[in-house]
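OP here, attaching both records as promised.
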Amino acid sequence: MINKIKDTIFQLSGLYKIYSKKLENDIKQGDIPNHVALILDGNRRWAKRHLAMTKVGHWKGADAVENLLDWCEQLDIKIITLYAMSAENLERNDEELEYLYELIFQRLEKLYKDPRIHKNKMRVKGIGRIELLPESIKEILQKLDDVTKGYDNHFLNIALAYGGQFELVDAVKKIGEKIKNGFLEVEDIDKNEIESNLYTSFLPQSSPDMILRTSGEKRLSGFLMWQSVYSELVFMDIFWPEFRKIDLMRAIRTYQERKRRLGK
């Protein structure tokens, strides 16, 4: 709490803008991650802290996502993967889930009409067990996929009804079908074959350079289990609705300060 108060005072001073500009200039001199994945955590706790209804936290979190797209464009981050809803979330079957469905549909529909996806030639795709989602969400995801499938300059992947274990199970099933139908021999199964059957197989770089999780939790919760093997992990003690550009830049600075060996 004391650190948050200090940060608020700092923001109100003129030093904040100077620091932010310097930080941006500094990180642009270094290696900007090409693929950033984010676990958007803390909407409910933000609402509780602010004595607000849970839906207000989700709404603010959705606003933060829209801002994030602008910041990533400014920093020239090419691939963004957002963990928006886990497969386990679907088991709740309560009023909050219905609200989340409506909010997700509204924001996807807004994204469909957003000229930025065409200006930036951004491929937009849902990843996960999309078939479990309501028809309205499946339809708008399909429309986004159809209208952007020819783009390859930027990529926005939205993980919905996603689970890392489910992704691996689905990949194994696809490989099993290939073997069953005579298109693949067991001895030919290798790393590349597995990767080609994951939800992220369409990306030019399926493995994130950096995975960032907000809310202070220090775990991946099954997010991109295969793809994250050499990703740099950054955990931030800030709730997602509070996330700012300066937080993204601080995460990138942390990423740049690490020496990546990629297992070598």
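Record two, same layout:
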Amino acid sequence: MVSELKVLKYKGHVVFEKIAMSGFDRIPKQYQNNEACFMFINEGEFSVRTPNEFLSFKKGKGLLAKCFDYFFETNTKQKIKNNGRIEVLGILLYPSIVEELFQFDISDSTHYVNYNAKQIQIDGLLNNFKESINMLLDNPELADEALIKTKIKEFVLLITKTLNAPSQLDFLAAMFRKNDTEFRTTINNNMYSNLSVDEFAQLCAMSVSSFKRKFKETFNESPKRYLGKMKLEKSIRMLASKDTRISEIAYDCGFETISTFNRSFKTQYGESPSDYRLNQTA
């Protein structure tokens, strides 16, 4: 899946990385060290599924994300672009490192932003910065500690100005302060995805057993039963339109395949989606 990986480290932490990958439907981004992240999209297209948003990205855009778990996803159309190849250049920011470099305490700011992930327009200054990091990743012998420190500080200055943040301290403090999404909201926002129970648990930053227990407490049914029922109820509504193909309905309702949709529908309603539609319009 990952065909290329280049990294630069500062005090044992990866701070700049270039990753090329292809051939995936969905992969998790899981953070370990409370880092915030910015990604330049160099090639390809993909989407990001968060607890409360589904964002699309393509070449020339940027992704700014706080420290939380989400998924990278690609659909058929996105895979066609560049033969499914995606390349991103990432900048990782850690509280301990930025406090050292900027000589301030993150906890001194209470600045808040109402997003966990955000699409960023790349202007000329950010693009020039990206090219400078590309050069260093391709020529790591040039990247000594002093230069890496300078580049981290340069990025923080540029992105602070891009976002019109009150100060560099306020920008960084907000990036390390995750906005929690209520459990029911996460489920409702991703109801008609084809996320597995394990993937739903990851999106909620919970173990599978904790997720199942919380789901049962919230919806009074198991995840499999409740989500399956809601998807079929949506398919019933969509079948009322004769212009919508069965395959589109299956996809929009979050079924992995048409055959899975047909089988689930027939089990629940005693006939296939096609027969149901014919009988309703007869």
